[in-house]
Fold this protein.
Amino acid sequence: MTMIRLEAPALTATINPLGAELTSLRDAEGREMMTDADPAFWTGRAPLLFPVVGGLVGDRYRLDGVDYALPRHGFARRMDFALVEHQPDRAVLRLTDTEATRAVYPFAFTFDAEFRIEGHVLVMALTVTNRSDRDMPASLGYHPAFAWPLPYGQPRAAHRILFDEAELDSLAQLGDGLIVSGDRPSPVAGRMLALDDALFTEDALIWTALRSRGCLYGPADGQQLRLDWSDMPSLGIWTKPGAAYVCIEPWDGHADPAGFAGEIWEKPGIRRIAPGESVAHWMRVTLPR
């Protein structure tokens, strides 16, 4: 499969049409900002999540009394996107419903993923459009895995995430990929999350009512990435202890609560998209100057 390359003076980006997945983000000196995708830990790089975010109870959901099977984070990340536009610094890829998707998600849709370079910034914009004649349930989100440590010479232990707002509320507690009863105390000190493998021995950190819409990632006294995202209320931060990446994942939705048995419309974090309407979100990654 031919990779799609975007290039500008300050950065280059490579996108895999399989899942419209960002696979590489390099600065002008060729330094890589993304995961090394070591198969000993995780081979993903930056999957796009649609039509659900997180896990479903039994990997199934119910719509109008009928059960349908969907894997964690949906099917978009495992499907080929068509390239509909490609310029040196911009590309648009599109996923359209197929017979296979309609068997598990009975809706006509388009899912566009736009990547564009604006100076030192990579913008990733997602647009989902309901082409059906009835309301469509959906959640979508980002799952980028950034290099930990970043390639600027600072040690892994020096890296932290500095949120735009204080994030002191309890986090959701995960069990087997689902949200279980009981909250997890926030490990954030004011606005700062000091990254440590011990944070992730019980899976991801999950916020379902995040105040911030941006953060800095990197060492306090070194070069950092600036991350911004649209109005998505949930966030996951995840790695596998010892891996050379950390995922910083804005979400419009999240996993099922354990034991959830209702219709998809009752699922926390689901969005109802009317016929002909679209939902759009964006994420921006700003590289050091």
About this structure: The chain has a mean pLDDT of 96. The chain has one domain: 4-286.
